User: Fold these one by one.
Assistant:
Number 1:
Amino acid sequence: MYIFLTILIVIAAILLTLLVLVQNSKGGGLAAGFASGNQVMGAPKTADFLEKATWTIIALIALFSIVAVGFSKGQSETADDQPAVHVEQTAPAAELPTESAE
Protein backbone atom coordinates (compact mmCIF):
# COMPACT_ATOMS: atom_id res chain seq x y z
CA MET A 1 0.00 0.00 0.00
CA TYR A 2 2.93 2.31 0.74
CA ILE A 3 4.28 1.89 -2.80
CA PHE A 4 0.83 2.53 -4.27
CA LEU A 5 0.51 5.76 -2.28
CA THR A 6 3.99 6.83 -3.33
CA ILE A 7 3.04 6.32 -6.98
CA LEU A 8 -0.14 8.39 -6.45
CA ILE A 9 1.93 11.18 -4.86
CA VAL A 10 4.31 11.23 -7.83
CA ILE A 11 1.42 11.33 -10.33
CA ALA A 12 -0.27 14.14 -8.39
CA ALA A 13 3.02 16.07 -8.26
CA ILE A 14 3.40 15.79 -12.03
CA LEU A 15 -0.20 16.98 -12.53
CA LEU A 16 0.41 19.86 -10.13
CA THR A 17 3.51 20.87 -12.06
CA LEU A 18 1.56 20.87 -15.32
CA LEU A 19 -1.27 22.91 -13.79
CA VAL A 20 1.12 25.51 -12.46
CA LEU A 21 2.89 25.75 -15.81
CA VAL A 22 -0.44 26.27 -17.63
CA GLN A 23 -1.31 29.19 -15.37
CA ASN A 24 0.20 32.62 -15.85
CA SER A 25 0.99 34.71 -12.80
CA LYS A 26 -0.41 37.82 -14.52
CA GLY A 27 -3.77 36.22 -15.30
CA GLY A 28 -2.93 34.97 -18.80
CA GLY A 29 -1.81 31.41 -19.47
CA LEU A 30 -4.48 29.04 -20.72
CA ALA A 31 -7.14 31.54 -19.72
CA ALA A 32 -5.80 34.07 -22.27
CA GLY A 33 -6.98 31.85 -25.12
CA PHE A 34 -10.59 32.14 -23.96
CA ALA A 35 -10.71 35.93 -23.84
CA SER A 36 -14.06 36.24 -25.58
CA GLY A 37 -16.57 37.92 -23.27
CA ASN A 38 -19.71 36.02 -24.26
CA GLN A 39 -18.37 32.50 -23.82
CA VAL A 40 -19.58 30.44 -20.88
CA MET A 41 -16.07 29.20 -20.18
CA GLY A 42 -14.48 32.64 -20.24
CA ALA A 43 -11.14 33.71 -18.80
CA PRO A 44 -12.27 34.21 -15.18
CA LYS A 45 -14.01 30.83 -15.10
CA THR A 46 -10.99 29.02 -16.56
CA ALA A 47 -8.68 30.70 -14.08
CA ASP A 48 -11.02 29.76 -11.23
CA PHE A 49 -11.09 26.15 -12.39
CA LEU A 50 -7.30 25.98 -12.65
CA GLU A 51 -6.88 27.55 -9.22
CA LYS A 52 -9.37 25.16 -7.61
CA ALA A 53 -7.73 22.20 -9.33
CA THR A 54 -4.33 23.35 -8.06
CA TRP A 55 -5.53 23.60 -4.46
CA THR A 56 -7.31 20.24 -4.71
CA ILE A 57 -4.17 18.49 -5.93
CA ILE A 58 -2.11 20.17 -3.18
CA ALA A 59 -4.60 18.86 -0.61
CA LEU A 60 -4.45 15.37 -2.15
CA ILE A 61 -0.65 15.33 -2.02
CA ALA A 62 -0.75 16.36 1.65
CA LEU A 63 -3.38 13.71 2.46
CA PHE A 64 -1.56 10.95 0.56
CA SER A 65 1.70 11.90 2.29
CA ILE A 66 0.15 11.66 5.76
CA VAL A 67 -1.46 8.31 4.96
CA ALA A 68 1.81 7.01 3.46
CA VAL A 69 3.67 7.91 6.66
CA GLY A 70 1.08 5.92 8.62
CA PHE A 71 1.62 2.88 6.41
CA SER A 72 5.40 3.20 6.58
CA LYS A 73 5.23 3.24 10.40
CA GLY A 74 3.17 0.06 10.29
CA GLN A 75 5.72 -1.62 8.03
CA SER A 76 8.66 -0.60 10.23
CA GLU A 77 6.95 -1.94 13.36
CA THR A 78 6.47 -5.37 11.80
CA ALA A 79 10.08 -5.31 10.62
CA ASP A 80 11.27 -4.55 14.17
CA ASP A 81 9.70 -7.77 15.42
CA GLN A 82 11.97 -9.83 13.19
CA PRO A 83 15.73 -9.83 13.57
CA ALA A 84 17.45 -7.74 10.95
CA VAL A 85 20.45 -10.04 10.59
CA HIS A 86 20.32 -13.77 11.05
CA VAL A 87 23.57 -15.01 12.58
CA GLU A 88 24.26 -18.69 12.28
CA GLN A 89 26.21 -20.44 14.98
CA THR A 90 29.02 -22.53 13.60
CA ALA A 91 31.02 -25.18 15.30
CA PRO A 92 34.33 -23.94 16.69
CA ALA A 93 37.28 -24.49 14.44
CA ALA A 94 39.54 -27.41 15.26
CA GLU A 95 42.24 -26.39 17.64
CA LEU A 96 45.65 -26.10 16.12
CA PRO A 97 48.31 -28.27 17.70
CA THR A 98 50.55 -26.31 20.01
CA GLU A 99 54.29 -26.38 19.63
CA SER A 100 55.94 -28.44 22.25
CA ALA A 101 59.15 -27.22 23.76
CA GLU A 102 61.74 -29.98 23.49
Number 2:
Amino acid sequence: MTINHVGMYVKDLEGARAFFERYLGAVSNEAYHNPRTGFRSCFLSFGGGVRLELMNRPDAVEQSPAPARMGYIHIAFSLGSAQKVDELTALLKAGGYEVASGPRTTGDGYYESCVVGFEGNQIELTV
Protein backbone atom coordinates (compact mmCIF):
# COMPACT_ATOMS: atom_id res chain seq x y z
CA MET A 1 0.00 0.00 0.00
CA THR A 2 1.18 3.55 -0.71
CA ILE A 3 -0.18 7.00 0.06
CA ASN A 4 -1.66 8.40 -3.15
CA HIS A 5 -1.96 12.03 -2.07
CA VAL A 6 -2.57 14.40 0.81
CA GLY A 7 -5.26 17.10 0.64
CA MET A 8 -5.01 20.57 2.10
CA TYR A 9 -7.59 23.37 2.18
CA VAL A 10 -6.13 26.82 1.55
CA LYS A 11 -7.60 30.32 1.33
CA ASP A 12 -5.55 31.32 -1.74
CA LEU A 13 -5.38 28.41 -4.17
CA GLU A 14 -3.24 30.23 -6.73
CA GLY A 15 -0.88 31.62 -4.08
CA ALA A 16 -0.41 28.16 -2.55
CA ARG A 17 0.18 26.62 -5.97
CA ALA A 18 2.77 29.31 -6.79
CA PHE A 19 4.54 28.71 -3.45
CA PHE A 20 4.97 24.98 -4.08
CA GLU A 21 5.95 25.50 -7.71
CA ARG A 22 8.52 28.19 -6.93
CA TYR A 23 10.18 26.78 -3.85
CA LEU A 24 9.64 23.01 -4.08
CA GLY A 25 9.51 22.31 -7.81
CA ALA A 26 5.89 21.14 -7.90
CA VAL A 27 4.19 20.52 -11.23
CA SER A 28 0.49 21.33 -11.22
CA ASN A 29 -2.34 19.90 -13.24
CA GLU A 30 -5.07 22.15 -14.59
CA ALA A 31 -7.28 23.42 -11.78
CA TYR A 32 -10.76 21.95 -11.33
CA HIS A 33 -13.78 24.09 -10.46
CA ASN A 34 -17.29 22.99 -9.48
CA PRO A 35 -19.43 26.11 -10.01
CA ARG A 36 -22.37 24.59 -8.10
CA THR A 37 -20.44 24.23 -4.80
CA GLY A 38 -17.62 26.72 -5.37
CA PHE A 39 -15.08 23.94 -4.77
CA ARG A 40 -11.73 24.41 -6.54
CA SER A 41 -8.71 22.13 -6.52
CA CYS A 42 -5.47 21.24 -8.23
CA PHE A 43 -3.01 18.39 -7.82
CA LEU A 44 0.69 19.09 -7.40
CA SER A 45 3.22 16.40 -8.29
CA PHE A 46 6.67 16.26 -6.72
CA GLY A 47 8.12 13.15 -8.34
CA GLY A 48 8.15 9.65 -7.00
CA GLY A 49 4.37 9.43 -7.29
CA VAL A 50 3.60 11.69 -4.31
CA ARG A 51 0.97 14.38 -4.86
CA LEU A 52 -0.56 17.19 -2.85
CA GLU A 53 -4.13 18.27 -3.55
CA LEU A 54 -4.73 21.94 -2.82
CA MET A 55 -8.40 22.73 -2.29
CA ASN A 56 -10.52 25.80 -1.73
CA ARG A 57 -14.21 26.34 -1.11
CA PRO A 58 -16.21 29.26 0.26
CA ASP A 59 -17.56 27.39 3.31
CA ALA A 60 -14.22 25.99 4.54
CA VAL A 61 -13.51 26.88 8.17
CA GLU A 62 -10.16 27.70 9.74
CA GLN A 63 -8.58 25.72 12.55
CA SER A 64 -6.37 26.96 15.34
CA PRO A 65 -3.00 28.28 14.10
CA ALA A 66 -1.20 26.78 17.12
CA PRO A 67 1.96 24.97 15.92
CA ALA A 68 1.29 22.00 18.24
CA ARG A 69 -2.42 21.53 17.43
CA MET A 70 -3.93 18.08 16.92
CA GLY A 71 -4.10 16.66 13.41
CA TYR A 72 -1.77 16.93 10.43
CA ILE A 73 0.92 19.45 11.30
CA HIS A 74 3.53 19.60 8.54
CA ILE A 75 4.59 18.33 5.15
CA ALA A 76 8.17 17.08 4.92
CA PHE A 77 10.23 17.27 1.74
CA SER A 78 13.41 15.25 1.32
CA LEU A 79 15.89 17.41 -0.61
CA GLY A 80 18.78 14.94 -0.84
CA SER A 81 21.53 16.81 1.00
CA ALA A 82 22.22 19.07 3.95
CA GLN A 83 23.48 21.74 1.55
CA LYS A 84 20.11 21.79 -0.25
CA VAL A 85 18.30 22.05 3.10
CA ASP A 86 20.52 25.02 4.01
CA GLU A 87 20.04 26.69 0.61
CA LEU A 88 16.25 26.33 0.46
CA THR A 89 15.87 27.41 4.09
CA ALA A 90 17.87 30.57 3.31
CA LEU A 91 15.84 31.19 0.13
CA LEU A 92 12.54 30.87 2.00
CA LYS A 93 13.81 33.14 4.79
CA ALA A 94 14.87 35.73 2.19
CA GLY A 95 11.37 35.39 0.70
CA GLY A 96 9.88 36.52 4.01
CA TYR A 97 8.93 33.14 5.47
CA GLU A 98 9.61 32.41 9.15
CA VAL A 99 12.19 29.75 9.95
CA ALA A 100 10.67 27.99 12.98
CA SER A 101 13.69 25.74 13.59
CA GLY A 102 17.02 24.75 12.11
CA PRO A 103 18.70 23.89 9.97
CA ARG A 104 19.97 21.44 12.56
CA THR A 105 20.54 17.80 13.35
CA THR A 106 17.69 16.63 15.57
CA GLY A 107 18.05 14.32 18.55
CA ASP A 108 16.89 11.39 16.41
CA GLY A 109 19.52 12.10 13.75
CA TYR A 110 17.61 13.97 11.05
CA TYR A 111 19.13 17.05 9.45
CA GLU A 112 16.21 19.40 8.93
CA SER A 113 14.65 22.79 9.16
CA CYS A 114 11.04 23.82 9.58
CA VAL A 115 9.67 26.86 7.79
CA VAL A 116 6.28 28.45 8.33
CA GLY A 117 5.14 28.69 4.71
CA PHE A 118 2.10 30.21 3.04
CA GLU A 119 -0.96 30.69 5.27
CA GLY A 120 0.98 29.44 8.32
CA ASN A 121 1.47 25.88 7.07
CA GLN A 122 4.63 24.22 8.34
CA ILE A 123 7.04 22.89 5.72
CA GLU A 124 9.80 20.58 6.94
CA LEU A 125 12.92 20.35 4.81
CA THR A 126 15.13 17.33 5.37
CA VAL A 127 17.94 15.39 3.72
Number 3:
Amino acid sequence: MSGKSRLLVGLVVAMFVFISSPVLAEDHPVQLSLFNPVQLFPEDDTITGIRLNLIYGKNASFTGIDWGMVNHTTQGKSLGYQQGMVGIADADFTGWQNNYFVNYVKGDFEGLQSGAFNYANYAHGLQLGIINYSGSMKGVQLGFVNIIKQGGQFPIFPFVNWSL
Protein backbone atom coordinates (compact mmCIF):
# COMPACT_ATOMS: atom_id res chain seq x y z
CA MET A 1 0.00 0.00 0.00
CA SER A 2 1.38 3.42 -0.93
CA GLY A 3 1.98 6.20 1.58
CA LYS A 4 -1.03 8.17 0.35
CA SER A 5 -3.30 5.12 0.68
CA ARG A 6 -2.08 4.47 4.26
CA LEU A 7 -2.67 8.11 5.14
CA LEU A 8 -6.20 8.02 3.72
CA VAL A 9 -7.04 4.80 5.58
CA GLY A 10 -5.61 6.29 8.78
CA LEU A 11 -7.70 9.44 8.41
CA VAL A 12 -10.88 7.42 7.83
CA VAL A 13 -10.20 5.23 10.89
CA ALA A 14 -9.45 8.32 13.01
CA MET A 15 -12.68 9.93 11.82
CA PHE A 16 -14.69 6.84 12.83
CA VAL A 17 -13.06 6.74 16.28
CA PHE A 18 -13.49 10.48 16.86
CA ILE A 19 -17.08 10.71 15.64
CA SER A 20 -18.26 7.65 17.50
CA SER A 21 -16.74 8.77 20.81
CA PRO A 22 -19.10 9.01 23.80
CA VAL A 23 -18.65 12.78 24.00
CA LEU A 24 -20.36 13.23 20.62
CA ALA A 25 -22.79 10.32 20.98
CA GLU A 26 -25.74 12.56 21.89
CA ASP A 27 -25.32 15.22 19.20
CA HIS A 28 -24.72 13.02 16.12
CA PRO A 29 -23.33 15.90 14.05
CA VAL A 30 -22.12 13.54 11.31
CA GLN A 31 -23.48 10.27 9.97
CA LEU A 32 -21.46 8.09 7.62
CA SER A 33 -23.21 5.13 6.08
CA LEU A 34 -22.08 2.51 3.60
CA PHE A 35 -25.52 0.88 3.70
CA ASN A 36 -27.91 0.31 6.60
CA PRO A 37 -26.98 -1.15 9.12
CA VAL A 38 -23.30 -0.48 8.31
CA GLN A 39 -23.35 3.13 9.51
CA LEU A 40 -21.94 5.10 12.45
CA PHE A 41 -25.25 5.59 14.25
CA PRO A 42 -28.33 3.33 14.28
CA GLU A 43 -31.30 3.93 11.99
CA ASP A 44 -33.50 5.10 14.90
CA ASP A 45 -31.24 8.09 15.61
CA THR A 46 -31.67 11.65 14.35
CA ILE A 47 -28.74 13.41 12.67
CA THR A 48 -28.15 17.15 13.03
CA GLY A 49 -25.38 18.25 10.72
CA ILE A 50 -24.13 16.25 7.74
CA ARG A 51 -25.32 12.82 6.67
CA LEU A 52 -23.21 11.04 4.04
CA ASN A 53 -24.81 7.89 2.58
CA LEU A 54 -22.36 6.19 0.25
CA ILE A 55 -24.88 3.57 -0.94
CA TYR A 56 -27.95 3.61 1.36
CA GLY A 57 -28.47 5.51 4.59
CA LYS A 58 -31.46 5.26 6.91
CA ASN A 59 -32.19 7.39 9.98
CA ALA A 60 -35.24 8.70 11.82
CA SER A 61 -34.68 12.22 10.44
CA PHE A 62 -32.00 14.80 9.70
CA THR A 63 -31.47 18.52 10.00
CA GLY A 64 -28.77 19.94 7.77
CA ILE A 65 -27.25 18.36 4.66
CA ASP A 66 -28.15 14.88 3.44
CA TRP A 67 -26.00 13.54 0.61
CA GLY A 68 -25.70 10.11 -0.96
CA MET A 69 -26.95 7.58 -3.41
CA VAL A 70 -30.15 6.59 -1.51
CA ASN A 71 -31.23 8.81 1.39
CA HIS A 72 -34.03 7.48 3.63
CA THR A 73 -35.68 9.01 6.71
CA THR A 74 -38.45 7.33 8.66
CA GLN A 75 -39.94 9.59 11.38
CA GLY A 76 -40.38 13.16 12.45
CA LYS A 77 -39.59 16.13 10.26
CA SER A 78 -36.45 16.29 8.13
CA LEU A 79 -35.16 19.78 7.46
CA GLY A 80 -32.49 20.95 5.04
CA TYR A 81 -30.90 20.09 1.70
CA GLN A 82 -30.94 16.57 0.28
CA GLN A 83 -28.95 15.51 -2.81
CA GLY A 84 -28.53 12.09 -4.37
CA MET A 85 -30.16 9.59 -6.69
CA VAL A 86 -33.21 8.68 -4.56
CA GLY A 87 -34.65 10.48 -1.53
CA ILE A 88 -37.33 8.84 0.61
CA ALA A 89 -39.02 10.55 3.56
CA ASP A 90 -41.60 8.37 5.30
CA ALA A 91 -42.72 11.45 7.28
CA ASP A 92 -42.43 15.23 6.68
CA PHE A 93 -39.71 17.15 4.83
CA THR A 94 -38.95 20.88 4.66
CA GLY A 95 -36.25 22.29 2.38
CA TRP A 96 -34.83 21.33 -1.00
CA GLN A 97 -35.10 17.71 -2.04
CA ASN A 98 -32.83 17.49 -5.09
CA ASN A 99 -32.46 13.83 -6.09
CA TYR A 100 -31.83 12.95 -9.74
CA PHE A 101 -34.35 10.13 -10.06
CA VAL A 102 -36.91 10.06 -7.22
CA ASN A 103 -38.03 12.45 -4.49
CA TYR A 104 -40.67 10.78 -2.31
CA VAL A 105 -42.32 12.35 0.74
CA LYS A 106 -45.04 10.27 2.37
CA GLY A 107 -46.03 13.13 4.68
CA ASP A 108 -46.13 16.89 4.17
CA PHE A 109 -43.52 18.61 2.01
CA GLU A 110 -42.59 22.32 2.08
CA GLY A 111 -40.02 23.78 -0.30
CA LEU A 112 -38.57 22.67 -3.64
CA GLN A 113 -38.54 19.17 -5.09
CA SER A 114 -36.39 18.76 -8.21
CA GLY A 115 -35.82 15.42 -9.91
CA ALA A 116 -37.24 13.12 -12.58
CA PHE A 117 -40.15 11.94 -10.37
CA ASN A 118 -41.46 14.02 -7.46
CA TYR A 119 -44.10 12.73 -5.06
CA ALA A 120 -45.64 14.29 -1.97
CA ASN A 121 -48.78 13.53 -0.02
CA TYR A 122 -49.17 17.30 0.49
CA ALA A 123 -46.84 19.84 -1.12
CA HIS A 124 -46.42 23.52 -0.36
CA GLY A 125 -43.98 25.06 -2.82
CA LEU A 126 -42.56 24.01 -6.19
CA GLN A 127 -42.20 20.61 -7.84
CA LEU A 128 -39.86 20.63 -10.85
CA GLY A 129 -39.44 17.37 -12.78
CA ILE A 130 -40.58 15.09 -15.55
CA ILE A 131 -43.48 13.66 -13.51
CA ASN A 132 -44.84 15.53 -10.49
CA TYR A 133 -47.51 14.12 -8.17
CA SER A 134 -49.15 15.60 -5.11
CA GLY A 135 -52.23 14.42 -3.22
CA SER A 136 -53.00 18.08 -2.53
CA MET A 137 -50.92 21.19 -2.95
CA LYS A 138 -50.42 24.90 -2.48
CA GLY A 139 -47.94 25.83 -5.14
CA VAL A 140 -46.78 25.07 -8.67
CA GLN A 141 -45.71 21.99 -10.61
CA LEU A 142 -43.51 22.30 -13.72
CA GLY A 143 -42.93 19.17 -15.82
CA PHE A 144 -44.22 16.96 -18.61
CA VAL A 145 -46.91 15.33 -16.41
CA ASN A 146 -48.29 17.23 -13.42
CA ILE A 147 -50.87 15.65 -11.12
CA ILE A 148 -52.64 17.28 -8.19
CA LYS A 149 -55.18 14.73 -7.00
CA GLN A 150 -57.33 17.16 -4.97
CA GLY A 151 -57.73 20.92 -5.31
CA GLY A 152 -55.44 21.57 -8.26
CA GLN A 153 -56.28 23.80 -11.18
CA PHE A 154 -56.47 20.53 -13.17
CA PRO A 155 -56.30 16.95 -11.87
CA ILE A 156 -53.61 16.20 -14.48
CA PHE A 157 -52.02 18.64 -16.89
CA PRO A 158 -48.86 18.86 -19.03
CA PHE A 159 -46.12 21.45 -18.48
CA VAL A 160 -47.66 23.40 -15.58
CA ASN A 161 -50.26 22.84 -12.86
CA TRP A 162 -51.00 24.80 -9.69
CA SER A 163 -53.18 25.17 -6.65
CA LEU A 164 -53.46 28.33 -4.60
Number 4:
Amino acid sequence: MFRKPIIAAFILLAALAAQPAGAQPVGDPGAQRLIDQLCPPGASCRGIRMPGTEAPAPGPAAPQPIPGQGLAPGPAAALPHPPLRETTAPAGVPAVSITVNFATGSATLTPQAAGALGSLGVALASAELAPYRFRIEGHTDTVGDARQNMALSQRRAEAVRDFLNKRYGLAPGRLLATGLGESQPLVPTADQTPEPANRRVQVLNLGG
Protein backbone atom coordinates (compact mmCIF):
# COMPACT_ATOMS: atom_id res chain seq x y z
CA MET A 1 0.00 0.00 0.00
CA PHE A 2 3.03 2.33 0.33
CA ARG A 3 4.64 1.40 -2.97
CA LYS A 4 3.34 4.33 -5.08
CA PRO A 5 4.46 7.11 -2.66
CA ILE A 6 7.93 5.53 -2.40
CA ILE A 7 8.29 5.37 -6.20
CA ALA A 8 7.20 9.00 -6.50
CA ALA A 9 9.79 10.06 -3.93
CA PHE A 10 12.57 8.31 -5.86
CA ILE A 11 11.50 10.03 -9.09
CA LEU A 12 11.56 13.43 -7.37
CA LEU A 13 15.04 12.81 -5.93
CA ALA A 14 16.37 11.74 -9.32
CA ALA A 15 15.01 14.88 -10.96
CA LEU A 16 16.62 17.11 -8.35
CA ALA A 17 19.96 15.32 -8.69
CA ALA A 18 19.93 15.91 -12.45
CA GLN A 19 19.88 19.71 -12.08
CA PRO A 20 23.21 21.60 -12.33
CA ALA A 21 24.79 22.52 -8.99
CA GLY A 22 23.66 25.95 -7.85
CA ALA A 23 21.05 26.26 -10.60
CA GLN A 24 18.20 28.66 -10.02
CA PRO A 25 14.56 27.76 -10.66
CA VAL A 26 13.69 27.03 -14.27
CA GLY A 27 11.36 30.04 -14.32
CA ASP A 28 14.15 32.58 -13.65
CA PRO A 29 13.12 35.51 -15.91
CA GLY A 30 16.67 36.91 -15.93
CA ALA A 31 18.00 33.61 -17.27
CA GLN A 32 15.28 33.53 -19.94
CA ARG A 33 16.22 37.00 -21.14
CA LEU A 34 19.85 35.93 -21.43
CA ILE A 35 18.86 32.80 -23.35
CA ASP A 36 16.95 34.97 -25.82
CA GLN A 37 19.89 37.39 -26.19
CA LEU A 38 22.55 34.69 -26.60
CA CYS A 39 20.57 32.44 -28.93
CA PRO A 40 21.53 32.87 -32.62
CA PRO A 41 18.91 34.43 -34.90
CA GLY A 42 16.59 31.80 -36.32
CA ALA A 43 17.66 29.10 -33.85
CA SER A 44 15.06 26.96 -32.11
CA CYS A 45 15.86 28.43 -28.68
CA ARG A 46 14.40 31.79 -29.70
CA GLY A 47 10.79 32.42 -28.83
CA ILE A 48 10.66 29.83 -26.01
CA ARG A 49 9.08 31.37 -22.91
CA MET A 50 9.21 30.08 -19.36
CA PRO A 51 6.18 30.55 -17.10
CA GLY A 52 5.94 34.10 -15.77
CA THR A 53 8.28 35.64 -18.37
CA GLU A 54 5.69 37.02 -20.78
CA ALA A 55 6.40 40.49 -22.15
CA PRO A 56 4.50 43.31 -20.41
CA ALA A 57 1.52 44.84 -22.15
CA PRO A 58 2.41 47.88 -24.27
CA GLY A 59 1.89 51.29 -22.69
CA PRO A 60 -0.19 54.12 -24.12
CA ALA A 61 0.81 55.22 -27.59
CA ALA A 62 2.69 58.49 -27.98
CA PRO A 63 0.57 61.37 -29.33
CA GLN A 64 0.74 61.73 -33.10
CA PRO A 65 0.67 65.09 -34.92
CA ILE A 66 -2.42 66.05 -36.86
CA PRO A 67 -1.55 66.83 -40.47
CA GLY A 68 -1.06 70.58 -40.87
CA GLN A 69 -1.31 71.25 -37.13
CA GLY A 70 1.51 69.45 -35.34
CA LEU A 71 1.42 68.52 -31.66
CA ALA A 72 -0.19 70.73 -29.04
CA PRO A 73 2.15 73.31 -27.49
CA GLY A 74 4.01 72.11 -24.45
CA PRO A 75 7.37 72.36 -22.66
CA ALA A 76 10.37 72.15 -24.96
CA ALA A 77 11.60 68.57 -25.24
CA ALA A 78 15.25 67.84 -24.65
CA LEU A 79 17.20 66.62 -27.63
CA PRO A 80 17.53 62.82 -27.49
CA HIS A 81 20.92 61.37 -26.56
CA PRO A 82 22.37 58.57 -28.68
CA PRO A 83 21.30 55.25 -27.12
CA LEU A 84 23.93 53.47 -25.05
CA ARG A 85 25.23 50.42 -26.86
CA GLU A 86 24.45 47.14 -25.11
CA THR A 87 27.59 45.34 -26.33
CA THR A 88 30.67 45.88 -28.47
CA ALA A 89 30.24 42.55 -30.26
CA PRO A 90 30.47 42.42 -34.07
CA ALA A 91 27.17 42.89 -35.89
CA GLY A 92 25.08 39.74 -35.91
CA VAL A 93 26.92 38.03 -33.04
CA PRO A 94 24.62 37.26 -30.07
CA ALA A 95 26.14 38.87 -26.97
CA VAL A 96 25.34 40.41 -23.57
CA SER A 97 27.21 42.73 -21.21
CA ILE A 98 26.99 42.16 -17.46
CA THR A 99 28.30 44.38 -14.67
CA VAL A 100 30.44 42.23 -12.38
CA ASN A 101 31.90 43.99 -9.34
CA PHE A 102 35.46 43.23 -8.23
CA ALA A 103 37.52 44.91 -5.54
CA THR A 104 39.86 47.55 -6.97
CA GLY A 105 42.83 45.87 -8.65
CA SER A 106 41.53 42.39 -7.76
CA ALA A 107 40.25 39.42 -9.78
CA THR A 108 38.45 37.85 -6.80
CA LEU A 109 34.69 37.65 -7.22
CA THR A 110 32.72 39.45 -4.50
CA PRO A 111 29.44 37.97 -3.20
CA GLN A 112 27.64 40.66 -5.22
CA ALA A 113 29.54 39.57 -8.34
CA ALA A 114 28.60 35.94 -7.78
CA GLY A 115 24.96 37.00 -7.45
CA ALA A 116 25.15 38.99 -10.69
CA LEU A 117 26.37 35.86 -12.50
CA GLY A 118 23.55 33.63 -11.22
CA SER A 119 21.14 34.10 -14.11
CA LEU A 120 24.00 33.79 -16.62
CA GLY A 121 25.00 30.45 -15.15
CA VAL A 122 21.44 29.17 -15.34
CA ALA A 123 21.17 30.35 -18.95
CA LEU A 124 24.44 28.74 -20.04
CA ALA A 125 23.47 25.48 -18.33
CA SER A 126 20.07 25.43 -20.04
CA ALA A 127 19.17 22.94 -22.75
CA GLU A 128 18.60 25.83 -25.16
CA LEU A 129 22.21 27.05 -24.99
CA ALA A 130 23.90 23.69 -24.34
CA PRO A 131 24.97 23.23 -28.02
CA TYR A 132 27.00 26.47 -28.09
CA ARG A 133 30.41 27.71 -26.98
CA PHE A 134 30.93 31.20 -25.53
CA ARG A 135 33.69 33.74 -25.07
CA ILE A 136 33.86 35.46 -21.68
CA GLU A 137 35.48 38.88 -22.18
CA GLY A 138 36.84 41.10 -19.43
CA HIS A 139 36.62 44.88 -20.00
CA THR A 140 37.84 47.86 -17.94
CA ASP A 141 37.54 51.63 -18.02
CA THR A 142 40.51 53.88 -18.83
CA VAL A 143 41.66 54.45 -15.25
CA GLY A 144 45.20 53.13 -14.67
CA ASP A 145 47.87 51.75 -16.97
CA ALA A 146 46.57 50.19 -20.19
CA ARG A 147 48.86 47.15 -19.98
CA GLN A 148 47.91 46.51 -16.38
CA ASN A 149 44.24 46.85 -17.27
CA MET A 150 44.69 44.26 -20.03
CA ALA A 151 46.28 41.77 -17.65
CA LEU A 152 43.69 42.46 -14.94
CA SER A 153 40.80 42.00 -17.37
CA GLN A 154 42.25 38.62 -18.41
CA ARG A 155 42.39 37.43 -14.80
CA ARG A 156 38.85 38.63 -14.19
CA ALA A 157 37.54 36.87 -17.31
CA GLU A 158 39.24 33.67 -16.12
CA ALA A 159 37.71 34.09 -12.66
CA VAL A 160 34.22 34.39 -14.18
CA ARG A 161 34.82 31.39 -16.44
CA ASP A 162 36.07 29.24 -13.55
CA PHE A 163 33.16 30.27 -11.33
CA LEU A 164 30.58 29.38 -14.00
CA ASN A 165 32.26 26.06 -14.81
CA LYS A 166 32.45 25.01 -11.18
CA ARG A 167 29.10 26.31 -9.92
CA TYR A 168 26.97 25.25 -12.90
CA GLY A 169 28.80 22.16 -14.08
CA LEU A 170 29.41 23.38 -17.63
CA ALA A 171 31.27 21.10 -20.01
CA PRO A 172 35.03 21.81 -20.26
CA GLY A 173 35.91 23.89 -23.29
CA ARG A 174 32.52 25.62 -23.64
CA LEU A 175 33.84 28.88 -22.17
CA LEU A 176 36.89 30.77 -23.49
CA ALA A 177 38.25 33.59 -21.29
CA THR A 178 39.73 36.69 -22.95
CA GLY A 179 40.86 40.00 -21.46
CA LEU A 180 40.42 43.12 -23.60
CA GLY A 181 41.24 45.78 -21.02
CA GLU A 182 40.15 49.27 -22.07
CA SER A 183 40.30 48.58 -25.82
CA GLN A 184 36.53 48.22 -26.41
CA PRO A 185 34.60 50.72 -24.25
CA LEU A 186 30.84 50.87 -24.35
CA VAL A 187 31.12 54.59 -23.58
CA PRO A 188 34.10 56.30 -25.27
CA THR A 189 35.96 58.39 -22.69
CA ALA A 190 39.22 60.26 -22.28
CA ASP A 191 42.16 58.56 -20.58
CA GLN A 192 41.95 58.14 -16.79
CA THR A 193 38.16 58.55 -16.79
CA PRO A 194 36.16 56.30 -14.45
CA GLU A 195 33.12 54.90 -16.25
CA PRO A 196 31.09 52.11 -14.59
CA ALA A 197 29.50 51.03 -17.89
CA ASN A 198 32.96 50.13 -19.23
CA ARG A 199 33.82 47.90 -16.27
CA ARG A 200 31.96 44.82 -17.41
CA VAL A 201 32.00 41.23 -18.58
CA GLN A 202 30.80 40.54 -22.09
CA VAL A 203 29.58 37.12 -23.23
CA LEU A 204 29.57 36.23 -26.94
CA ASN A 205 28.10 33.16 -28.62
CA LEU A 206 30.88 31.47 -30.66
CA GLY A 207 28.60 28.91 -32.26
CA GLY A 208 28.51 25.15 -31.88
